[in-house]
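step 4 of 6: structure.
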Amino acid sequence: DQQVKQNSPSLSVQEGRISILNCDYTNSMFDYFLWYKKYPAEGPTFLISISSIKDKNEDGRFTVFLNKSAKHLSLHIVPSQPGDSAVYFCAASPQGGKLTFGTGTRLTIIP
Amino acid sequence: NAGVTQTPKFQVLKTGQSMTLQCAQDMNHEYMSWYRQDPGMGLRLIHYSVGAGITDQGEVPNGYNVSRSTTEDFPLRLLSAAPSQTSVYFCASRSGTPEANYGYTFGSGTRLTVV
């Protein structure tokens, strides 16, 4: 049973435009959400996170939005750059608990 | 450089062989985890530890053992390798302090092939 779902396996966006990656979760006990970025042959790297007490967190070009009632979060990248081409994983955790990952979305930025 | 170190980077095993994937971190992190990444499956948690002497099972623990005798090390043992264990394995760690952002630091991975 997939508790964290990323329904889009891939996404292509033109350079300079906005990239929006989506994630849905089913476990109501999750209260911390994270996004990771992964390049080929490397480990995932932490990108941005959000606590369930917030609905938005921003860090430079990256913004994460959380809609608790819909159990949905999204990552916005503005403007998109070629170096943003990677696989993005959504992850969720209950307080101090195990981190559960989604299946990932491959983002390709088109120059 | 500080971080999570995994060895080996690549390994080929024959079915039935055993081996240990090594993981060490020098950040004094309490929490450590092992994940495997398979196409279309994302990252799945194998085993988990919240401190020396404490381990717990994740989503896919069968066929794997772990122990945590020190804060720094969290080895993953394959007892009798099977082709279904062909995967990329990632070790990760994070601080357990309340101020930590739950952001795990990952190693660069071990690519394991079982033939």
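step 5 of 6: annotate
 - The longest strand of chain A covers residues 86-93.
 - Chain A has a mean pLDDT of 94.
step 6 of 6: archive
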